[in-house]
Here is the input.
Amino acid sequence: MAFDPERELSFSLADGTPLCVRSIRPEDRDFITEAFRRLSPESRYFRFWTRVRELNPRLIEEICSPDQKDHVAWVARHQTRDDIPGVGGASFWRLKEDATAAEVSFTVADEFQGRGVATLLLAVLWEHAVSLGITRLVGHVLHENVAMRAWWDALGATEQEAPRHWLTTLVLDESLLEDNSAGSSLRARLTQVRAWMNEENVLKD
Here is the structure.
């Protein structure tokens, strides 16, 4: 089942915060730039591995120009708060050397971290990836990023240590998810995303 990049998905966080999740578009450059500016220095460092204050315009252009096949990008935005430029975003790039794997990355606004945003975005990326024949998501996590490492570990991802970071690999097989809070939360979100996909196919039929 293919994803329709023109459709928006409506979700709520556990605390009731209403979100819309949709694919990133070229016209999103300004709000993505502002969302980046609002990140704490630590969040910027964990995402880009450098102490940058401004995003390179070329990188913004790249982020905002996904083809939704080899470069997939989704964003979560608050449904009722226009003053919040972005709640979170996630993307993956299919590996040139292995078309069944993709490198994944996440960014969540500081005030929304720890509230399930990354899990929601991972569920969307998971189903989108599977629809494209991708079976594994790999991530590069700095040694200092203890929270991200713990999350991947709780989901059942494998780790391989490198000099500065860990290479994590998550197989997109729901039966392999750990039987814990992280695994249960992801399973619940996967069920919601699949329901949206089924609704989309019914509408098309």
Notes: The chain has six helices and eight strands. Residues 62 and 154 are 31 Å apart (CA to CA). Residues 9-204 form a domain with the Aminopeptidase fold (CATH 3.40.630.30). The longest strand covers residues 98-108.
